[in-house]
Each structure stands twice: as C-alpha cells, then as structure tokens.
Amino acid sequence: MATTPALDDALLDFTSRENWDKFFALRGDGDSFEWYAEWPQIKAPLLSLLLGEEGTEILVPGCGSSSLSEQLYDLGFRRITNVDFSRVIVADMLRRHARVRPQMRWRVMDMTNMQFPDGSFDFILDKGGLDALMEPEVGTKLGMKYLDEAKRVLKLGGKFACFTLAESHVLDLLLSEFRFGWDMTIQAIASEPSSKSAFQTFMVVMVKGKMGVVHTIKSLVDQSAEYCNMQQANAVIHALQNENKIRESHNSGVDILFSLRDLQLGAIGDLKVIVPGRRRQLILGEQGSSLYCYKAVLMDAKNQTETFAYHCGVFIVPKARAQEWLFASEEGQWLVVESAKAARLIMVFLDSRHASADIDVIKKDLSPLVMDLEPEYPEETDPMPFMMASDGVKQRDVLQEVTSEITGPMVVEDVLYENVDGDQSCMSEKMFRRLIFKRSSGLVQSEALLMRESPSDEMDSKTKNSSTSSKKKSQKKGLTGSKDSLRVDHSYLGSSYHSSIICGLSLVASALSAAASSGERVSTTIVGLGAGSLPMFLRGCLPHLDIEVVELDPVMEEVATKYFGFSMDEQLKVHLGDGIKFIEENAHSERNGKDSDAVRILIVDVDSSDLSSGLSCPPANFVEDAFLMSAKKFLSAGGLLIINLVARSSAVREMVVSRLKAVFENLYSLQLEEDVNEVLFASPSKRYLEIDHLDEAATKLKAMLKFPVDVESDMKNLQRLR
Q1: Which residues does 507 contact at the CB level (< 8 Å), separation at least 6?
Q2: Per the UniProt record, which residue ranges are transmembrane (predicted)?
C-alpha cells in the first residue's frame, strides 16, 4: 500500500518512537500495513519452519500494523507475543484483535531492551524490524542491541526468521553476529508476477546451537534464477561466498586472530568458563569503543589445580620487549602465565602507537575491554590486576617540540633502551631517535637507530657491525655528550612494516632486476615523508630507484632534515603538496604516457588525523574509489600500489580490501605479527608480477638489496587476497 507525503515525512527517522506514533496516528485505526513481503509470498517458506509446531512460543518484535500475526493465529498458532514501542499502534492492535483473537498478546516494549526472561521463545519472527533499526546514519549500535536481545530470549534450538531487504550493512551485521554457534540459511522470497517492486526480499533463518561451533551458510539464492533486482541478489550471493570463506578458515584449525566481539559472540566457547590450556589471539578495541587497538593473547593456565593469586589478570608487554622469546613465543608465554599465578592471563602487546601514552591512560582504556574476558568467580570481588614488564626505556632526552598547522604538535626525542636480556644484537642498549605525533595520543611515527662517531672518523654503514666492542663502550655513556657525534643509521629500518614494504617488492623483483641490469631508473613515488626513514633507506638499498616523495606539511621536511639526516639529490626529491592531487594530475600527464611500459611503484604511507572513519592509516580519502582509480592509471601497464593499512575494526578493513579488489586485478597482504599494521600490495595487471615463483623472487630481491633485510621470512606470510 502506498504512503502519502505526510506519512513519508513522519518517518524521516525509522528509529524514532515519536515518528512511528505520528505515522500510525496519521494512518488511522483498523488498517494493516506491509512494507514488503505480503502474506501470500511468505506463507509457504514461513510455514515450512513452523510445520507441526502449533504450540510454539512465537515473538514478533516491531510488529507494527502488519497482518502477519493474525494470519498465523488463524492457522492455529495461538501463542504469539507482539511487541512494538509505539503505544499508538499497540492500542490499535489490541482493539482490533482482543475479542476475535483473545490468546494473542500485545506489549508496549522496546525491542532493543525487552523485559522477557532468557530463553522465553521458540521462534522469533522479524519482518523489517532489523532493517528499520539499521539506518545508515545511525550505524550498527541499535541493530546489535536488538540482535543481542533476540539471541538472549530465544531458547536453545530455537529459530530466528528475519525478513529483510539484505542491504549490505544489514547483511554484514547478520552474518557476523550469527557466525558462531548458529546454523544459518538464506533464501529469496518470490515476487508476484504483477509486482513491480524495485527490491528483492530475503528470508534469513538462524537456528540457535552450541556456542563456538561454526556452520557454513546454506544458500538457496541461485545466481541463475530471475529476481526482481538482480544486482541486489548478486550482492547477497557475493557476500555469502565471502562469509563462507571466513567460516571455513575458522574450521581449518589455523590460529585465527579474533576480535573482542568474536569472543563475546562465543567464537571460543563460554568465556565465563576456564578451559585449561586454552590459548587464543585477539584484537582488543575498535573505533568508538577505545582510544587504541591492542594485540592480545588470552591464556587459561594449563594446571587449574594450583593455588592462584588471581582468577584473571592483565599483563602488559611494551613494544621494546615484544620480540623477546619470553613474550613472543608460545612456550615463553606459558612461563609468564605460570609466574603470574593467574588462572587466566590476558597478555596485551603495545606497539608504536602506544609508545608515548601514559600507562594509566592505557590501563583505563583497557579496563572495559578486558572486563568481558573475565571468567566467572562468584567469590572473587577484587578488581582485575594489571601487571607489566618494564618499558625498556633506560633514558629519554627530548630534543625538540614543534607544532605544525597541518600535523599538530610533534616531539623529537632520543631514547636509550635497557639491556633486558644481555643480547647486544637486539634493541637493548641501543640509542634511537623518535618522532612522535601528539595528535594521535603519542604515536611514534618514526624511530631511527643512532650511531655515535667522531667528526674526524665517520664510520661507513657497511662496516657498522665490525666494531662491536667500541660500540658497547660508547653506549654505556648514555645520551650525554655532543649531539654532533650522533648520526642516523639509514641502513636500519625502525618500523617492521617498512621492512614488509621492502619485502613486498619481491612481487616485481624480475622487473627491478632487469631495470638495474639495463641501467634504467625505476620511478618510485612515496606519499608521506615522516622522518624520511623509508625514502633514505630505499635510496641506499636500491640505487636504481628514482624516488619522489610527496609531503603535504613543509614542517615535516624541516624536521626530517634537521634531526633525521634526510637529504635530497638527483635520485631523491621532495614535492610539497597534496598527495591525492599529485597522483591524479600525474596519472593523466604526458610524463606518465611516456613511461607507460615501465614498472612503477607507488607507496602510500600516511597517518590520518581523523580517526572517525575507523582508519589510523591512511586517511579515508586514500582508499576512496576516485583515488584508487587514479592510482591504477598512474601505474599504467604495471607495478605496485603499496598501502600501509591500520584499521580500527575488521569491518573497516574488509571495506578497504573490497574497494581495492574492485579496482585492481591482483591484491596481496602482509599482516605483521607484532604490530597492527597490514601492508597491502595491489597491481593493475600480472605483467610484472612474480606470482608463481615467489621464493625465487624473494632470493632475487635479496641479492639486489645493499642493506640486509630478512626477505624470505616476511614473504612466508604473504597472502593473496585476489
């Protein structure tokens, strides 16, 4: 039934109680209204779920004025409870049905906060209720609250049938929220031959099962069938295929990196119960719920017969200590659990983004995140304890504090790390210069190794490891003495994701090797200068690269030059300006046309000042379709687009990957074990790619590099996304 303009105006916000009251008041009494999926079309698939179960307790949340409940009632299903938060419509429905359908119940109730005991219903029937809560402007908060309530009031073995248009944001929520412990089926609802509806309705059925079990989705949506909206149907089919790949990976036995939400949904079983020897890796924190994201490991002590000091504790590992055997290996982590005397230990690993944050801020940020991971101990009333390994910084010397109109406040500091394990080859007892962005809660944007030398006796970077004993003596002096005797070692990469960027060049190793042999230069563009560590390393490591850095903030160039030894020459230049405009203009320039047959490299390594998009790196407009299309044109016949990605939620990460897949034929990923960074490699064609011989390509790249990089180790973690 069509609505009038007045009715349309009343429902500008589908989540507003007042708007719904106004809508139903304007419609008047005694008239049913169906947004989509009329009874004749849904009768057969719905009754197939209820066959022989006339005594079933049925809940219809967000019932509105639909005739769905009365149709079921008249077929013998008497135990139906209808809820809606509009008093206007509940009063109207009571007047219409109280006498003729006396056993049917009506309640004024918010479907996101229902006053029913756990496990009250055998069957939940949602027809457009979830869709109404999932207004794109509102986000997923109300939808998640409703689904949590629906799952709570449904009995084990009960069914939840949801009639929906399956828009991407709605379907994504359903697929993720019912991933663990639910058996899911989806089918399209047939339309009347005369129907000219622009949208296809789907029925998604979830059966509540054992927590932690992952089932493949059964799809009855056929790609060869005719639907009233084929684009919509194909999008659903594609989403189901992707979701089933995720579910298959959970069943493959590999060590999955879970989100906190996954664990809350039962991905590893009941979190309230200790499972001796259980160990799971996870990410804590998402956009809007915390200041930071954290990599963590949940571990239940193997021997639960011991006397524990704590039923659950949090152990924080600073970045400087994260690579030590005690914290990086599974065997070492179990030793930490044992020494901590905790029945469950949550080990949290800090990375570069947390380096300058106050530890009290970290603890406050973590507290609500770890609360859901606490097992049930009725007799335990003490708060969960926080333990921490020392941060590894022995001495800190602030060199400069500067504020830029573009980047905001920055700090340049020198730090000396403690010798925590007696291994002089590790980070311990070495001096580093760090660039910190205060706008991102103390993000360590760059970290460079410092070398001490006398002005009259400069040490060549190729022989820096040949005088270990003299270095040990100089390191014991700490950070005192003339700053003129310190220089940045440009053969060292302080960021692990920078190493991954270098290793990923293995994908085009043959093209790089051929260019070096023929004396050709390889055009390399880096968007984002930072402290200049990456371009300086590339200049020394691969001398046949022509490097152009695009940097928006002139203050960054000044800081990089003054404190980090950055310098320009014929091989390395800086263009001050907007990176997106630079790529767009050069993608269509005459210069790009002349070099259309050459391999090119484009690296996007930019921090975001606006975290509202869910991206810490890069800014959201660098993963918009417009920029990605420009980047594809910029690379022309081939080459690599390399993006340093830090997403604050799995949904945002999947959105970025999906956009890249839509533009580029080839997509690869390197996920860093010790960091939240993920490096993505995209190419418009296979022309220069070493897809079938990556081991040989890694060896070939390593032979070209002038500085040592563990190429083979990183390339083992390379995953093909498309």
Answers
A1: 640, 668, 681, 683, 688, 689, 690, 691, 694, 697
A2: none
